[in-house]
Amino acid sequence: MTTIDAAPTGRATPERRAVEDPPTRVDRIFGFATSGAGVVVFGLLVLIGTFLVLRANRTFDSQGLDFFTRVEWRTEAGRPAEIGVLGLLAGTVIVALIAVTIAVPVGCMAALYITTYAHARLRGILTSFVDLLAAVPSLLYGIWGFLFLGNQIVPLSRWLNRHGSWFPPFRTTPEAQLTGSFFIAGVVVSLMVIPIITAVTREVFAQAPAGEKEAALALGGSQWGMVRRVVLPFGRGGIVGGAMLGLGRALGETIAVTLLLSQTPKLSMRILENGGGTISGFVAQRAGSDPVTVSGLMAAGLVLFVLTLLTNLVASTVIARSRSGAGVDA
Question: Which DSSP string corresponds to 278-323?
Fold first, then answer.
């Protein structure tokens, strides 16, 4: 059996032409400016971290690993200092989780209503209203919560304790005071976080592909079906990003929690009872104390700094892998 070789076609293979796009002067200036801004941001983070490490070195040397496992914070004169961040860290996380648990569903539903269900004229009014709420200073939220809202939440705390005591966080000791609790602080902080989450998720939901939404409706799907199959999957990155941005905001909230909590470190999951503190609120209350206390406050601030950075790192990773964040970090 003979093999017949294919005859050559005689055509030359076309060469791929290189496209040259040399940067202009404006492009170079813009590149240097953006690169410089990135370097400045990174430099600020390094400087802040270095400052906290240097000022907290005294506490780490004297307390060792007990600093991360001790709940108490005692720096009385004439006694060895016993400084621990565990109670304050637990209070910070509890308040932030309560705030995000309330704010994420409310913020996402508000964003869905603005982008999908609201009339065009009402949409503009609601957008401006949400942006205005995001600009309200936290001091006003804290004063409102301290003077008015806290007492209005107490009946809700009592109802949760009466009907939800099967859930460990809703249990209380006999005759426990329900004012100045983690729950009240979390509710007030959630009011500050809701506008942020709403603004972020609203922008992402508004960018959902119009062709896919119209196709879902044309195939006989309902409005909710279109939202569930097109808008929510597309906006997953925005939801995660808004939630993490709100979580970072809640972790670092200072003025409101300083007014609402007694700033006494404790390790307890009973969120309806009086007492507790957060790192930021405790630092604000004890700032300007003796050098030993200041060093401990710097160490606590360093823990909060690292926690916030890790939170943002996780958020950026999740967003980059989602559909709405695809290509953002490319």
Answer: -HHHHHHHHTT--HHHHHHHHHHHHHHHHHHHHHHHHHHHHHHHSS
pLDDT band at 328 (very low <50, low <70, confident <90, very high): very low
Contact (CB, 8 A) for 118 and 212: no
How far is residue 291's CA from residue 6's CA, in Å, rounded to a whole number?
A: 88
Residue 258 lies in a domain: yes
CATH number at residue 114: 1.10.3720.10
Q: Which helix (H) or strand (E) holds 38?
A: helix 25-63
Whether 231 maps to a domain, the answer reads yes
107 phi/psi in degrees, rounded to 5: -65, -40
Q: What is the pTM of this model?
A: 0.84
Range of the domain at 247: 92-274
- Please report whether residue 31 resides in a domain: no
What is the phi/psi pair of residue 22, to 5°? -65, 135
- pLDDT tens track for 267-316: 888 899 988 889 999 998 888 778 888 888 999 999 999 998 888 888 77
